[in-house]
Amino acid sequence: MKTLFLLVSILLAVSLSVLSALLARGLMAWSGAPPASGEKTAAVPSLSPAPSAPAFAVFPEQARLIEEILAGLAEERRQYQKKLQELAEQESKFQERKIILERIELQVKELQSKLETRIVELEKAEAANFKRLAEMYAKMDPQGASNLLEQMEPERVAKILAFVPDRQAAAILDAAVARGDKGKSVAGSWSDALRRLNRQGRGT
């Protein structure tokens, strides 16, 4: 914008200088109709220069400056167009990446939903399995049930005992305690695991 303003100012200044020089050298004639009814009318200068004197030839330095300014403006325009093209390419790449990211995000959400559904299904299947095992151990002799449960991890035993009726579960724990110190330790670990399981179920 500043360059354009400077160019217009220089062109106006040069035009006025050329006009003055041409008039001073007699290269431009005044023409005008004679005044009518005694009125004084200012003569209108003819804007056609004499054929033997090119306008800018009178001021070669100004002409060269104008050519340089025009060349600079052309270069700025070229750079501007180049920058616009680069911005357009960047915008296109940005939109492509945005579309790709949106697709990936959608796929992640779909996979997460499937995973959550699968986890729920597995939890239901596991609960059904523990329930069947609980029914089996509840029908067994408490001593035999405690002997088998002792081979399992306390957390797994707790999940099974959680489905066993309270009376049968207490009998299995008593049978474990009756085997001495080792049995007491095992029964204690089962009780601790049951308490942790109950707290998790209550969300505390």
Q: Can I get a quick summary?
A:
With 204 residues, this protein is an all-alpha fold. 75% of the residues lie in helices and 2% in strands. It is built from six helices and two strands.
Strand order of the largest sheet: 1-2
Q: How would you sum up the major sheet?
A: 2 strands, antiparallel
Helix content: over 70%
Structural class: mainly alpha
Our estimate of the beta-strand percent is under 5%
Shape verdict: rod-shaped
Write the element-wise H/E pattern from the N-terminal end onward. HEEHHHHH
Task: Please tell me about this protein's structure.
Residues 27-39 and 41-58 have low confidence and may be disordered. The protein has six helices and two strands; from the N terminus they run H-E-E-H-H-H-H-H. 10% of the residues are buried. It has helices at 2-25, 60-139, 142-149, 154-161, 166-177, 181-202, and strands spanning 30-31, 44-45. Helix content is 75%, strand content 2%. A two-stranded antiparallel ribbon has the order 1-2. Helix 3 (142-149) crosses helix 5, helix 4 (154-161) packs across helix 6 (181-202) and helix 5 (166-177) runs antiparallel to helix 6 (181-202). It is mainly alpha-helical. Among the domains are: 58-129; 140-204, no CATH class.
Quick tags:
204 residues, rod-shaped, two-stranded antiparallel sheet, mainly alpha, 2 strands
Q: What are the SSEs and their pairings?
A:
Layout: H1 2-25, E1 30-31, E2 44-45, H2 60-139, H3 142-149, H4 154-161, H5 166-177, H6 181-202
Antiparallel strand pairs: 1-2
